[in-house]
Write a structure and sequence with these properties.
By secondary structure, the protein is of the alpha/beta class. The chain contains ten helices and eight strands. The chain has an eight-stranded parallel barrel with strand order 1-2-3-4-5-6-7-8, surrounded by six helices. The chain starts with a strand and ends in a 7-residue tail after the last helix. The chain binds pterin-6-yl-methyl-monophosphate (PMM). Pterin-6-yl-methyl-monophosphate binds next to β1 and β5.
Length: about 270
């Protein structure tokens, strides 16, 4: 069954939930709510990756995420750390995170892979072609899914060379990162090419702009969450091992419907 990563952005500026979880008590309450709704992993981030976002000083990033990670880990909740920074990744693992989630796949910080290797943590490697400030200039593909798969294969090899066995790697096509709206759909349509790499596949479509562009008008959050639940179920059908979402309950329900369709025993 496809897993659910619940998103906990502790940032003042993430595009859909910025500012909401800056208060540690509220952040923890939200994480526990997502866990109760069915999240297998809470993905904690302290720096926004939205297009044009400014980088956050490492000390500030760590001050935001480490206490939350420690509290969640103490409560026995599996945590991943969403960071581009190797020092934050290692500190987060020491605080209890089990997975490092690097949307740049080790490209933003050249020390990332070597730093994660000795920790024993798993690593989610995202498809990335450059910082969000200018990533759309790099959105050029002839066969998007194939090229994304090829570039992820190179990152799996780089991880292996740094001492991270492929069994510890999760790959992510990086929806919205250096991809236009239609290119995101091309990648999702070709998700089997990414699954064919043989690694676990994580897919993050939640509330992203390409979904809003697909819907009429200016969809509010509820409509984006419904669209996210549908794409998450379709990603699960196409072989995703986990999906990364803001609205855990909606995606849990969509995955339950998919499971029933496929004849899996229900959770009731
Ligand atoms: N997207 C965002 C942040 N982190 N991590 C992974 N593995 N995959 C993603 O697609 C991804 C990510 C940007 O979205 P947010 O601002 O809603 O967190």
């Amino acid at each position: 069954m496809t897993g659910i990563w619940g998103i906990l952005n502790i940032t003042p500026d993430s595009f859909s939930d910025g500012g909401r979880h800056m208060d540690p008590e509220k952040a923890l309450a939200h994480a526990h709510r997502m866990r109760a709704e069915g999240a297998n992993v809470i993905d904690v981030g302290g720096e926004s990756t939205r297009p044009g976002a400014a980088r956050v000083p490492v000390a500030e990033e760590q001050a935001r995420v480490l206490p939350i990670i420690a509290a969640l880990a103490d409560a026995g909740i599996p945590v991943s750390i969403d960071t581009l920074n190797s020092e934050t990744a290692v500190a987060a693992v020491h605080a209890g995170a089990r997975i490092v989630n690097d949307v740049s796949g080790g490209l933003a910080d050249e020390r990332m892979l070597a730093a994660v290797a000795p920790t024993g943590a798993d690593i989610a490697i995202g498809h990335w072609r450059g910082p969000s400030s200018d990533m759309y200039a790099r959105a050029q593909y002839t066969r998007a899914a194939r090229e994304v798969a090829g570039e992820l294969r190179e990152r799996i090899a780089a991880a292996a060379a740094a001492g991270i066995a492929p069994s510890r790697v999760i790959v992510d096509p990086g929806i919205g990162f250096a991809k236009s709206g239609e290119q995101n759909w091309e990648v999702l349509r070709g998700l089997d090419e990414i699954a064919a790499l043989g690694s676990r596949v994580l897919v993050g479509t939640s509330r992203k702009r390409f979904l809003a562009e697909t819907l009429d008008g200016e969809p509010d959050q509820q409509r984006r969450d419904l669209a996210t639940a549908v794409t998450s179920a379709l990603a699960a059908r196409a072989g995703a091992w986990a999906v990364r979402v803001h609205d855990v309950a909606a995606t849990r329900d969509a995955l339950a419907v998919l499971g029933a369709w496929d004849g899996e025993p229900s959770g009731r």
